[in-house]
Amino acid sequence: MALRKIIPVLLVALVAALPLLAPFTQVMLTLALAKGLAVLGIIVLLHAGQVSFGHALFFAVAAYTAAFVGKSFAGGELVAMMVAGTLVAAVTGLFVGLFVVRYRHIFFGMLNLAFSMIFFSFLEKFYHITGGSDGLQVLRPSVLGIEMERTGFEMLLFYGSLVICLAAGWATWAFLRSPIGNMMQTIKTNEIRLEYLGVSARATLLAGYVVSAALCGLGGVLMAVAQGIVTPEYAWWIRSGEFVFIAILGGANSVAGAFVGSLVYEIVRTYAAAFAADVWQMVLGVFLLAIILFASDGLVGMYNALMDRLGGKGGMRTDDAREAAE
Amino acid sequence: MTGRVLMSAQGLQIRFGGVVAADNVNIDIHEGNNLAIIGPNGAGKTTFLNICTGYLKPHAGRVVFDGKDVTRKSPRQITRLGVARAFQIPQLFTEHTALENLLIAAAARDRSWKPFTALGAIPEREEMMHLLDMVKCTSVADRPVSELPEGQRKLVDIALALALKPKLLFMDEPTSGVASSEKFEVLDIVAKALAEAQVTAVFVEHDIGIVERFADEVAVWNRGEILFRGEPGEILSHPDVIRDVIGEEV
Ligand SMILES: Nc1ncnc2c1ncn2[C@@H]1O[C@H](COP(=O)(O)OP(=O)(O)OP(=O)(O)O)[C@@H](O)[C@H]1O
Ligand SMILES: [Mg+2]
User: Fold this and answer.
1) For residue B69, what are the β-bridge partners?
2) What is the CATH number of the domain that holds A318?
3) How high is the pLDDT of residue A312?
4) A324 pLDDT exceeds 70?
5) In terms of Cα–Cα distance, which of A253, A254, A205 is closest to A50?
6) ipTM score of the complex?
7) B79 vs A171, A179, A196: nearest CB
8) What is the C-alpha separation between B20 and B194, in angstroms, rounded?
């Protein structure tokens, strides 16, 4: 169905055009894209049937890494921040992962939470290193050695984030349909058989865990640079919960769900909070309830169902709707 | 019983509460010698397979495969040494299609993780299609296995084990759930494939017709013990076996 593929492309184009049409949306969209990357990390693990309630840890580890890079090298360099932040998040993911992949379901979720809380306290308590609850400032970095003006930089950050999200969305989509990605998904259905094929279920989950930590890290760096400040709130458990919330909202079965969910969430949050400060959480709560009860594949699932109805069957599966990865 | 000893179980003991599921089990599995295990329900047949493949650790005794003591090894490690297993209750990846199940097995066998290649595009695809064809599941290759009838799930489960190209294959009641009109045909094909690939099979079976046709040797289990062991013609006509085991089966 052509329409099914055209709409996602149009949506990406719309997101790309929005800051030009309405400049005041640009920062919000950049933040939504940054969060979308972290949500993508959550979605990777959901494919293995595991929910982490502590992934803000990797978001924060990378954000603080970016801040330190900024402090250490006069003003910092964006590319260095992204590489260092993502790497540190991946390595942290490897070490935390070695421990948590031994557990499943609620224990997996809670252990992740525990690690993130430890890091949260560390950020609060070690004031002289982390700036405590005031956090650290992240000055505008240079980009490949070029110093930029604020507006130009913000524009570049937005379009850079968009490109990164599309690339990360594609890479994650490819990973999930690869041999190793499929093995990771068998953890949800039959770990015993996986072991009886000679593959370590733990090592396989660890691979997915490191990928998910790296994605969260990349999102954390973009968030830190966009906000210009990192605080312990980056590691707070509410933020971890938010990532899971957005994943379910957008559609946990698909890569596109991360970004669709994140954009919708951020828009509702920003405008509902402005116009209906007291009820926006209620609006989101009711919305989530409706999704869980009636459309468990989230917004992307609803979109696919609608397309099925419009154009008959034989269309794409949810995970093929990656083009919608705006 | 000419081949060398491939696997050897020595003095296996295991009990679950009051139930003795393995009581001094001693048996050698010879290369190229297909062994059928028969015995009443609860005799300890599946338990024996569980011990030999590392899923259960015996309270006493040991299992030696290819000269190595594998008693304390995990199913994964034993699988990697060349032992595969098909289960009494099919153990499949229920959200994947029949073909995807096999492709995952092939990728596992070849340690081919390939994070940026689609599972459906790996070079083992043709080989796995052939394997599906062999177990007569080509028509359902693209259906999620959770939708397949028990008989076909059983066959996909066997195909998963075969995909690993093991040296030794354990099959737990391979024909239960398979339509009786197809049992012989399918097992004929499996047996041929096993012979071609020089795989030795140990299979638990209730169908005496199948045992007569495919086993080179039969072991009769009861209450965690091996009561009789020998050539099928001799064992299956033994009056005690007919009375205690075969009588129950029909
Ligand atoms: N993990 C376990 N925990 C407790 N009891 C067990 C366990 N595994 C097997 N048993 C018991 O051990 C005995 C032997 O079971 P087993 O499954 O080996 O029998 P079987 O010969 O395969 O029977 P069937 O023909 O019904 O498959 C049974 O009484 C069973 O209830
Ligand atoms: Mg059994």
Assistant:
1) B64
2) 1.10.3470
3) 58
4) no
5) A205
6) 0.95
7) A196
8) 33
SS3 A295: coil
Q: Which of A16, A261, A63 is nearest to A162 (CA)?
A: A16
B113 Cβ inside 6 Å of ligand 1: no
Tokens standing for B13?
Answer: 């003991």
Token pair 């559609």 is found at: A251
Name all contacts of B187-191 with Cβ < 8 Å and 24+ positions apart.
B187/B213, B187/B214, B189/B134, B189/B135, B189/B136, B190/B134, B190/B135, B190/B158, B190/B162, B191/B34
Give the tens place of pLDDT for each residue, A92-151. 999 999 999 999 999 999 999 999 999 999 999 998 888 888 999 998 998 998 888 999
Nearest Cα neighbor of B33 from B6, B1, B80 is: B1
How far A281 CA lies from chain B's nearest CA (Å)?
A: 35
Contacts of B103 in chain A (CB under 8 A): 179, 182
- Report yes or no: A79 and A113 within 8 Å, Cβ to Cβ: no
Full residue range of the structural domain in which residue A95 is found: 2-12+25-325
Nearest to B222 by CA among B238, B237, B240, B208: B240
Instruction: Fill in the amino acid letter for A291.
Output: I
Query: How many beta-carbon pairs under 8 angstroms link A with B?
Result: 93
pTM, whole model, 2 decimals?
0.93
Q: What is the helix (H) or strand (E) element at residue A223, kind and residue range?
A: helix A201-227
Give yes or no for residue B45 CB within 6 A of ligand 1.
yes
Length of chain A, in residues: 326
A309 CB contacts (<8 Å, ≥6 apart)?
A: none
Collect all residues of chain B within an 8 Å Cβ-Cβ radius of residue A183: 104, 107-108, 113
Tokens of A303: 């979109």
- Cβ burial, residue B126 (10 Å; 0-12/13-18/19+): exposed
Set of chain B residues whose Cβ sits within 8 Å of the Cβ of A182: 96, 100, 103-104, 107, 119
The first and second tokens of residue A285, run together, are 């709560």
Residue A42 lies in a domain: yes
**All domains in chain B, ordered by first residue:** 1-82+167-182+199-250 (3.40.50.300), 90-165 (no CATH)
Give A115-124 pLDDT, tens digit per residue. 999 999 999 9
